[in-house]
């Protein structure tokens, strides 16, 4: 037994962690564009990175460092440092050599436009603005935003039965290009739990499947996706089960925040697939739904076009039969194993469900026990506007 | 040696074929919504159908007929007769039993909204308007349109060295939901060549790979996709090589017409991938580009965001390396094996290329000899508008 208490301190909730965001002039409007996370003690690091073969320089740089402890993460927005080759990696070394005096094995993370060299001078100047005694998680969360419309942070304190406690907190960015393979997102998680690197990695690997890997904004996968989990062990407390549960809560909350902030999104939709041959089939079908342009535009139009749902499942490659499938909008069943319940009245009722900001589309394939929940949003004019004009 | 002459008679170019379109009141505005193709002689039929597991009733009906010759195809728009189960197949039998007296093994093809029973009475009434002596391919092409903004037809006459000749002509519809696995499209091809069913099927299977299977509008795959090739052998003429070449020309022309008419599309883009490990890798990469929402919206914004091209290739799963890749917009190379040629002046030049209605994005992966060309369009506000309001 343990208690979980929400905290609003984000990445600074854990004892001994500091963070802030500053403006280094990378963004045009003087908005915050550089952040740091600093820990008084050296931290173990667990990580997840994009599977994109054009992965960005910061990811290559991290991998080159091998096994290490760190106490400093530098993050910039507006420039992804991707497709910049060896020069991009050398740029990171140069920038990090100007890190504050007392940091150890500093690491860097970037997000923004691909194919432009880092503005090193600006970033080095910007680092001079860092005050390592600051605990402003919200400012750090703001500084790593790109097309995000709101900053994303969350933290929980876990109180174990023996009275000991630890914290897990995080900041994240991600609004577009979020794909079922963890894309265009950055997430930095800190904890003062006394957890080993191996247990952190195991927990991350498990939690990502049903959180960051279950969301979709536009089906594209980026060059920079990164999740870092840093532990300084300060609390001396740990419970494997509690740690995993709360890490899941942190990642799940942030994953849904990203979908809610999907570029131009007005709706957060849960795709619940049950009755699939196995969990893998359920996952494929659920993600196909959250990725389908025709489903997304129907959501935007608040049009209960269940035929597109059926067609998308049929096209997804999973085992499925017209005569075994059922489809519901929240608790309204529109199609059940060959029976069409979709008349004018039902259409009106379903359209009313779709006017909500949050609802669930459920599909039972009627075959086996496989199930999966994916999360997606609608696609409207704002998405087109944001992405047609991204670089300008 | 043979000569190929363009004809504007579409599906009626081949000797002995007739076609027309009528209005049966399925579309609200009195537009043509039913078409027929009729041949005086019975025809061999070759076919290609959707791979969607929720395939529509007309496809199931066709498959149940086994091996047969026909001389009559009935086509309706506005209702897909999909997700309608056994009743949907029985509806087809009922409708076709009211076919004109002199037809043999009539077949039916449908396109439109999924999950609504066929309006049988209207269709049976509509058939009474058919005049089997009409040769109005354009009217038939118009009647099978859904969100298409223009009718699609083409025909060629082939004159062989000995002076004998045959014709191949076609009509098609397709504007949205067109996917690299032949989707939401119907295409009816007629020929008076003296070709066997087996040779027709072989030619269709080969030509589809680089035509209808190489285009993408929105990556979705429909329940109704159908290509039918009917031959009545009237001309007595045939040449295998010429037949395949001209069939390819017909299908390639119509495939590009569909992309050009992609819902809300303003640009027709060729994605030419070369230097891939093998042709399969090239195909995967080229189709990933034509399917990418981020690439499509950049096209719409006329933003030469080549980083999105690189990122999409990296995410596509094919073998690719940052240091071996080159990317060009038409003949302007913006990235070559680690060298960034993209400065302010190049950006201006590339933006000028993107203002054209047609251009090519070339990616050389620098690994092997694999190559593939895919065709796609941009995604703009009109796409969202069309698909948010499709059923209303």
What is the correct CATH architecture of the largest domain in chain A?
A: 4-Layer Sandwich
Proportion of beta-strand residues of chain A? 25-35%
Number of domains of chain A: 2
Count of DSSP-assigned helices of chain A: 11
Question: What percent of residues of chain A adopt helix (DSSP H or I)?
Answer: 25-40%
**Major β-sheet profile of chain A:** 9 strands, mixed
Identify low-pLDDT runs of chain A: 177-183
At the fold tier of CATH, the topology name of the largest domain in chain A is L-amino peptidase D-ALA esterase/amidase
For the record, the CATH class of the largest domain in chain A is Alpha Beta
Shape assignment of chain A: globular
Mean of residue pLDDT of chain A? Answer: 91
> Span between N and C termini of chain A?
53 Å
Q: Helix- and strand-based class of chain A? A: alpha+beta
Q: Could you give me the name of the CATH homologous superfamily of the largest domain in chain A?
A: L-amino peptidase D-ALA esterase/amidase
CA radius of gyration of chain A: 22 Å
Task: Give me the count of strands of chain A.
Answer: 16
């Amino acid at each position: 037994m343990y208690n979980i208490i929400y905290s609003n301190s984000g990445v600074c909730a854990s004892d001994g962690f500091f963070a802030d965001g500053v403006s280094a002039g990378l963004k045009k409007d003087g908005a915050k564009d550089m952040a740091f996370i600093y820990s008084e003690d050296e931290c173990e690091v667990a990580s997840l990175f994009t599977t994109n073969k054009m992965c960005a320089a910061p990811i290559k740089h991290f991998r080159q460092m091998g096994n290490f402890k760190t106490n400093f993460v530098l993050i910039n927005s507006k420039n992804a440092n991707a497709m910049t080759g060896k020069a991009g990696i050398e740029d990171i070394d140069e920038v990090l050599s100007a890190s504050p005096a007392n940091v150890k094995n500093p690491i860097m993370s970037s997000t923004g436009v691909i194919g432009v060299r880092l503005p090193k001078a600006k970033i080095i100047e910007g680092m001079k603005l860092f005050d390592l005694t600051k605990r402003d998680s919200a400012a750090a969360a703001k500084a790593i935003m790109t097309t995000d419309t709101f900053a994303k942070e969350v933290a929980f304190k876990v109180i174990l039965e023996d009275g000991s406690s630890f914290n897990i907190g995080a900041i994240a960015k991600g609004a577009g290009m979020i794909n079922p393979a963890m894309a265009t997102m950055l997430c930095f998680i800190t904890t003062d739990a006394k957890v080993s690197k191996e247990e952190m990695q195991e927990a991350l690997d498990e939690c990502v499947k049903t959180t960051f890997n279950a969301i979709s904004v536009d089906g594209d996968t980026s060059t920079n996706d990164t999740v870092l989990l840093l532990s300084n062990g300060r609390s001396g407390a740990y419970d494997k089960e509690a740690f995993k549960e709360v890490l899941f809560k942190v990642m799940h909350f942030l994953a849904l925040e990203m979908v809610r902030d999907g570029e131009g999104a007005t709706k957060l939709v849960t795709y619940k697939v049950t009755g699939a041959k196995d969990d893998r089939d359920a996952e494929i079908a659920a993600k196909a739904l959250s990725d389908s342009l025709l489903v997304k535009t129907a959501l935007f139009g608040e049009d209960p076009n269940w035929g597109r749902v059926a067609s998308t499942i049929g096209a997804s490659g999973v085992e499925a039969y017209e005569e075994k499938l059922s489809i519901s909008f929240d608790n309204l069943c529109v199609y059940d194993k060959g029976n069409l319940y979709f008349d004018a009245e039902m259409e009106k009722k379903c359209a009313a469900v779709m006017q909500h900001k949050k609802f669930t589309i459920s599909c039972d394939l009627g075959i086996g026990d496989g199930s999966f929940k994916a999360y997606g949003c609608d696609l409207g004019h704002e998405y087109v506007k944001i992405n047609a004009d991204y670089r300008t």
